[in-house]
Amino acid sequence: MKFGPNNHGEHCPEGHSTAATIATISATLAADPDVDSSAVEIRMLGPVVLLEGYITKAADRDKIIAIAATIVGWENVQDRMLSRFPPP
């Protein structure tokens, strides 16, 4: 991590740190009882949130993306989640 006034890579446009942004998204997902995000990893690449891992319901994808987008904006969300549906 770099310190000093020119350290813009570790912060979003609003000035939140990467860790704070990830923590906010994680907490918001955990607070939603209708979404299973237990196998989803949240990472950041600059201002872009990367959503990686597995979902078990198709509806979870849209909700997870929407929750992340409310925090960082639609243009800053990259969906890399894979579907892993349980056997019938």
Automatic annotation (TrEMBL):
Domain of life: Bacteria
Domain BON: 17-85
Protein name in the entry: BON domain-containing protein
Entries under InterPro entries matching the protein: BON_dom
